[in-house]
Here is the input.
Amino acid sequence: DAGVIQSPRHEVTEMGQEVTLRCKPISGHDYLFWYRQTMMRGLELLIYFNNNVPIDDSGMPEDRFSAKMPNASFSTLKIQPSEPRDSAVYFCASSRTGDHTGELFFGEGSRLTVL
Amino acid sequence: AQSVTQPDIHITVSEGASLELRCNYSYGATPYLFWYVQSPGQGLQLLLKYFSGDTLVQGIKGFEAEFKRSQSSFNLRKPSVHWSDAAEYFCAVGVDRGNKLVFGAGTILRVKS
Here is the structure.
């Protein structure tokens, strides 16, 4: 399997612009997670889905952030409008319930810089 | 609320020396516990996990961890560190039947030759 695929790997944008980050989970995985990593706050869970349904979005910082999972093989995290404090590495991860409970498979991350 | 504390932000050890990274958790029920490793510019990779049973668990790359309920700890150990072990290590506790992970702040391991 190709693993979790994220795009873009790097994004530089200006404040106020819309940013869309994309994730393709591992085939057969029913959980999908979006994490944000910064030096100051470490790894923060933003939102996670089970079977394409959002289960917990309590980590989404504010209404500027939204996430969707239209099908089992694709998810997006959108920031509109973006702000400099959104600069971070955003990770997507997926997992499968059952024997692999708790084993998250991470993508390589999308490094976002908002100027 | 669930939380994980990794008291050491940075640790430096000599190559060949033993290693112990500390982790304490707060969780009301029986915890699912994990250690992940992150190399620079990469995502996280699972080293080992504890769900139940034997409190000493073995992982990849020669790592092991011991669950101590009385101390709410899950410390990671390796008897002999290699230069390639330099990375950041994250302890995590799993909720929602282990499917949602809450991570600690991480410990950066430096290995000196």
User: Anything to note?
Assistant: DSSP finds no helices and eleven strands in chain A. The radius of gyration of chain A is 13 Å. The interface with chain B takes residues 4, 31, 33, 42-43, 45, 48, 50, 55-56, 91, 93, 95, 97, 101-104, 106-109 of chain A (CB under 8 Å). Chain A has a mean pLDDT of 93.
